[in-house]
Amino acid sequence: MKVIEISESFGTDRLRLADRPEPEPGDGQLLLKMNAASLNYRDWLMVTGRYNPKQPLPLIPCSDGSGEVLECGGGVTGFAPRDRVLPIFAPRWIEGKPDREKLRTTLGGPLDGVLTRRMVVDADSVVRTPAHLDDVEAACLPCAAVTAWNALVVHGELAEGDRVLVQGSGGVSIFALQLARAMGAEVWAISSRDECLARMRELGAVDGVNYKTVPEWGREIRKRSGGVDLVVDVGGGATLPQSLAAVGLGGRICQVGNLGGGSVELNLIPLFMQQVRLQGLLVGDRCSFEALNDLIENKKLRPIVDRTFAWTEAGAALDYLAAGQQFGKVCLSIEE
Ligand SMILES: NC(=O)c1ccc[n+]([C@@H]2O[C@H](COP(=O)([O-])OP(=O)(O)OC[C@H]3O[C@@H](n4cnc5c(N)ncnc54)[C@H](OP(=O)(O)O)[C@@H]3O)[C@@H](O)[C@H]2O)c1
Predict the structure, then answer these.
(1) Which residue owns the Cα nearest ligand 1 atom 10?
(2) From the CB of 198, is ligand 1 less than 6 Å away?
(3) Is pLDDT above 90 for 336?
(4) Substitution candidate for ligand 1 out of 64, 166, 234, 288 with most atoms within 8 A of CB
(5) What ranges do the domains of the chain cover?
(6) Which residue minimizes the CA distance to atom 30 of ligand 1?
(7) What is the DSSP string of 164-228?
(8) Is 307 in the pocket of ligand 1 (CB under 6 A)?
(9) Which residue from 48, 140, 172, 263 has its CB within 8 A of the most atoms of ligand 1, so it is best to mutate?
(10) 156-280: what fold?
(11) Which terminus, N or C, of the chain has the lesser number of Cβ atoms within 10 Å?
């Protein structure tokens, strides 16, 4: 079967179409035909060797894909050929608090990922695809949308009417905007691009601030909103001090990403004076994904796809993602 892999050295220009033996499903497993994938910033870090320079090669990259069941292994119940499914990001993390093993066994590194025409997965490590989504849209969900869900719901304890701040117009943030609006929250936004702020308002954001032209955007968001209840922070070092300035008394900051760097000097006084809770998180379990899909189905939400490349152009697609000019998700179609 054909796969896309990094084999000898890291780099987006090192991705190659390669042949691997046809996989067969064992007991409790499903053989999937993969139809589409979506890219996350993590995939770019992985392929360029920044995420884990010691990652053994060859590796089939990318964690997020959508497919359909071709064959069920022995003892599988509840699935049949042609069922549309999505492999979960951490295949052994089904429910509850993760342990190190569950967090270390994730698709697209260290485990082989979804850029493959055929994939064998444990039947308990997939969720059903929301029926109204096409394969490319559905492929957007496993990492970015589950992360946004966990930041908002599981750790952020979002309540109707809460004010939420989302940062930039990448995958996690646009999902956070859509999901927060669907749950009755008031969404505030920052972006480096005024045209993206306009699009975020069209998606339901009440207002936004350009973080390039207003470097003290945290104070500005606080002034306009009265202080937000929850920040989904994807900028990391570049944004955390300003996130702290934007949040109101008793607010929460869910620290998700490091797009603007992984370290920062932070004035801790507002943290305790404002009784702010700072929470890091890593994607989420299968149960979170199922709860997310219930909301997506009920509200008929559709992921925002910026652009879809052919899977043989995965390197160019990853470079496009890393350039940060997208609005929403960058995807790949996996042709037969
Ligand atoms: N913890 C987890 O489980 C988890 C899961 C998924 C992702 N992540 C992390 O979350 C971050 C976002 O991932 P993603 O896949 O959504 O990324 P992405 O799609 O590549 O997001 C790119 C966008 O982020 C915005 N951005 C870039 N630098 C920024 C900064 N300094 N401040 C504010 N916004 C900035 C830009 O938006 P504008 O052009 O509008 O400014 C850019 O277009 C990454 O660091 C990723 O590794 C973590």
Answers:
(1) 257
(2) no
(3) no
(4) 234
(5) 2-142+286-333, 156-280
(6) 235
(7) EEEESSSHHHHHHHHHHHHTT-EEEEEES-HHHHHHHHHTT--EEEETTT-TTHHHHHHHHHSSE
(8) no
(9) 172
(10) Rossmann fold (3.40.50)
(11) C
Task: Dump pLDDT digits (tens) for 186-245.
Answer: 999 999 999 999 999 999 999 999 999 999 999 999 999 999 999 999 999 999 999 999
Distance 227 CA to ligand 1 centre (A): 22
Determine if ligand 1 sits within 6 Å of the CB of residue 239. yes
Specify which residues 191 forms β-bridges with.
210
Distances (CA, A) of 111 to 52, 61, 72, 176, 196: 13, 9, 21, 27, 35
Which sign, positive or negative, has the C-alpha torsion 255, 314, 110, 97? positive
Question: What's the CA gap between 290 and 88, in Å, rounded?
Answer: 10
Class of the 2-142+286-333 domain?
A: alpha beta
19 CA distance to ligand 1 middle (Å): 33
Amino acid, res. 297: E
